[in-house]
Predict the 3D structure of the following.
Amino acid sequence: MTLLAVQTLNGLQLGILLFLIAAGLTLVFGVMDFINLAHGVQYMLGAYLAVAGYGLTGSFWLAMLLALAGSLIIGLILEVLVFRHLYDRSHLDQVLATFGVILFLNESVKVVWGSSPLTLPVPEILDGSIPISDGLLYPVFRIALIVSGLAVAALLYVLVSWTRVGMLVRAGATNAQMVSALGVNIRRLFMFVFGFGAMLAGFAGIMAAPILAVEPGMGDNLLILAFVVIVIGGIGSIRGAFMAALIVGLVDTIGRSLATDIARLLLPPAAANDAGPAVASMLIYILMAGVLFFRPSGLFPARAG
Amino acid sequence: MSVAATDKPAVATPIFRARVLPAIILAGFALLPPLAMALDDSFLVFFAIRVMIFAIAAVSLALILGFGAMVSFGHAAYIGLGAYCVGILAEHGIWEFYISLPVTLLVCGLFAAVTGAISLKTRGVYFIMITLAFGQMAFFTATSLSAYGGDDGLTIWGRTEVFGSSVLSDRTTFYYVVFALLAGAWWLCATLVNSRFGRVLQGARQSEMRLQAIGIEPYYYRLVAFVIAGMLAGISGALLANSAEFVSPAYMTWHRSGELIFMVVLGGLGSFAGAVLGATGYLVLEEVLSHITEHWRLIFGPFLILVVLFARGGLMGLIPGGKRHD
């Protein structure tokens, strides 16, 4: 039972990380019809910048500020240099060009910081563990990650539902051309959304840095999971991304911890040890396939039809 | 296509692109081993084998990407599946091609049929992301196959046999087997595209609704093309396993899928000669750049972006025969 509780928390934590990445991705796609593979690299850069910032300042919080600013600046530079020229191109061109950005940035990180994994210490205030039930300790920082992710989700909800920019973002996700025709500076809106998405990815990277290995390519696998999330949630929908991120995080984590045990009930132990992890790694893709089979545009599609 | 043909009369010679260029390319590959022998450069043959293997995969991707507008971002999975079929069968002592080839085709065809049936219900970005996700599913499954090497991959102690004889171990024989399969795959895809089936496929790229209005449901045509492409890529994977005598999950990372798409785009969408040229161009570039610096992706990444931004039409765009219209 306690194992299940811990796994649920771990699943939530993965879900929150996925949400932070998927939110930017889905916003950018929803408003600009732009598919940005380089979003995962922006997450990686957030983590590296935090490590570098910590090396400079010795404080996690200053490092976070620096890394957020850095993520924003790099995001905007990429927007001006590359992405801006791709908005009216086909999705194929967007995929390929942003793939080029991934290759370049992954390699740059290797050149600057080397290919061995780096670590970022947990800030002192959030160090240590707290008991959640009898005999069960859980690290404070991981709880802080979950809470901060929920706070970001709430902030996004308020921004998107109650502010003027949020209204434009929603309108843009429904029909960007119409918004532009009504006299909104769509380029500026694009830049704003893009920079914001880059910061969210950077924030996810900063929060992941103390608990995961900071290494080149760390964003690549999470990017694919974030894709699964936004496909399940419905492209362009923040609410969908939130729900789907939690579902994917929980299914993946709990699936991995239980699959071998479940497989043992059905198969001989040796086969179960093999089949368990294999099935567990396929679970979320099967989930995605199932969702798409019944609802081809996801659970909460932003566009009608 | 038909619109493009009427609003601009073909000035140059389409026959060059359709007949002469493929003949030149194939003749080049056919004459390479004697040339390499004359130059005493055995690396050249080894390298050309690799080029032709990836050219088969690129041709298969060009079929669905260039003619069916299906941006499959999981095509490397089929290379990996094909390679694993050979590797796993060999691990169990089955070396005969008349078993491993049908198994490869069957496994890749089935995987393509199941994932394609689901993916093709979606369009655009959804399709890209879903094929990507299915590709990753195959990748992670391969990494968790601890009985067959897991992450580290699986060494194959030999090559596929033909009725008990190990003729494929001879480099020149293997070269011409790969060559014949490339020519066959190319011929098959070109024939398909020019058939009624191919016209439906290309028509669906233009307007699905018009096709449906005349009573054709493009879904099944797309699915068949998707399955054929998957099976051909599986053959290239089986060849890759034989050439390297090694299989690993690295064959099916999504980076590999991205590189395959780049090969097709570099060569020029909508042409199989382009796919072959693109595969050649990419592998030569990789070879040359990685000799210059270990961090060759620093150069390759921006190059890729520049190709996408400025070199529309790819290598085929440089060749006379009229520009393609989309």
